[in-house]
Amino acid sequence: MEPVKIGILGLGTVGSGTVNVLARNADEISRRAGREIRVVHAAARDLKRPRACSTEGIRLTDKPEEVVNNPEVAVVVELMGGYEPARSLVLRAIENGKHVVTANKAMIAAHGNEIFAAAQKKGVMVAFEAAVAGGIPIIKTIREGLAGNRIEWLAGIINGTCNYILTEMRDRGADFGDVLKEAQQLGYAEADPTFDVEGIDAAHKLTILAAIAFGVPLQFDKAYTEGISKITRLDVEYAEQLGYRIKLLGLARRAPTGIELRVHPTLIPERRLIANVDGVMNAVLVKGDAVGPTMYYGAGAGADPTASAVVADIVDVVRTLTADPNNRVPHLAFQPDQLSNLPILPIDEVETAYYLRLQAHDKPGVLANVTRILGDLGISIEAILQKEPREGENTVPVIILTQRVLEKHMNQAIAKIEALSSIAGKVMRIRLEHLNRDWK
């Protein structure tokens, strides 16, 4: 049987890793796929740059459209990243009748609906396992392994850069800015870290997971996104003292009136397994009605872990090259005409518990005023921690943990607390989730 010929767009870290894994495990991969898989054409921005893989037998070009238009290429592997020209090239590949494998979470989150519709029309596959959580096969797990479940919620540490920063802040008592610089020096964070530290990268990934979990269209523009740049080492320390750890979580939950879709720093009880996922590692919790809570852990980035997911997608595509297009696993797990119109809830309508840190003047009656405001809005207090004033300061840090309340009510309470003359500056608010079996 003729080998399946592959074209790759992008020979950076993941592209080179994909070539290496295909070469290193060629026999095993052929046994699994039923045919030899051969990379014949690849596009790279700089052809003179040294590669981390062998390019022997691969035709190189700096014009990616040549790969997309190559009649020999049956599967285009897009590893360029970003919105454009990746989107246009993928759509051209689909129009040319080629299957597509991609690791591009930004493109899928923002343009996946258009891309999947085009693929459905042409009868080709678009596989994107590597777009979320690197080497963890979380998309296949939700789409296929948990297909018998009604997914109730999922929660994930899906950005290794933020997890590394928060871990170092906790372990060393370091400040955010100092750890960010170290992460950049180590290659964990980009020179411009905005996508990572402001939660955008995690929101791209969460958008994809939620679409697959709940059978809704991709709606990245409706995801609430908040990063970790305002988290201080004091918040990390106080959370520890109260038995919690701070993680940047992507949370998607089926609520009575719609779907919650939110990325933000979150306090989690330290006894939870996911609270103990440290460094650059990723983890995703998924709760199904039949299976209960399940957790998936592994490397969320890197050449070989991500290439592992890319190659698994290539094998899936090769296995189904001769299959009836109407009987393949749907891109978003549900048949295209069965997607739900459940709304994405605005953050004001989300119910969660809260960690509040405020600077109060050290005089009688301050706490009574704060607790009265909370009580008037129906907000119950779980715990209060008052710290000693630091030397030379006339205010004391007060930390309050609340029970669950609608975000809009907490916004009202914070506005009233900040208006008190006895409160200095802004109230620091971090959401809190217990992530137990009964979280609904």
Question: What separation lies between the terminal Cα atoms?
Answer: 52 Å
Structural class: alpha/beta
Corresponding CATH architecture of the largest domain? 3-Layer(aba) Sandwich
Unreliable stretches covering 5 or more consecutive residues: none
Question: Which key terms come to mind for this protein?
Answer:
alpha/beta; 3 domains; 11-stranded mixed sheet; 440 residues; Alpha-Beta Plaits; Rossmann fold; single chain; 6-stranded parallel sheet; Dihydrodipicolinate Reductase, domain 2
How would the blueprint of this fold be written?
Layout: E1 4-9, H1 13-24, H2 26-33, E2 37-43, E3 59-61, H3 64-69, E4 75-78, H4 86-95, E5 99-102, H5 105-122, E6 126-127, H6 138-145, E7 151-157, H7 160-172, H8 176-186, H9 194-197, H10 200-214, E8 224-225, H11 233-241, E9 244-255, E10 258-269, E11 281-288, E12 292-299, H12 303-319, E13 351-361, H13 366-376, E14 381-386, E15 395-402, E16 405-406, H14 407-418, E17 423-432
Parallel strand pairs: 1-2, 1-4, 2-3, 4-5, 5-6, 8-10, 10-17
Antiparallel strand pairs: 7-9, 7-11, 9-10, 11-12, 13-15, 13-16, 13-17, 14-15
Helix pairs in contact: 1-12, 2-12, 4-5, 5-10, 7-8, 13-14
